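Second attempt. The first submission of DNA binding domain-containing protein, excisionase family had a stray character pasted in from the spreadsheet, which I only caught after the job came back as garbage. Lesson logged: always re-copy from the clean sequence file. Corrected sequence (67 aa) follows.
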Amino acid sequence: MAIAKVDSAFERLSNPEAAQYLGVSVHTLDSWRCIKKPFIPYLKVGARVFYRKADLDAFLAANTVEG
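This time the job returned cleanly.
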């Protein structure tokens, strides 16, 4: 059986994994998704929520403050 390689741009993280990756609580990430502020694109498969790693990286880059 061959194992398919996942393109890192399409790597998916679950809601708890995404919260940990961003350094926020799951509750904070849930709130952001509910009020759409700040908006981070997400995927919904049934009741499960996933985030693409590329979208999380773009969010972090857009919110980086350099002094």
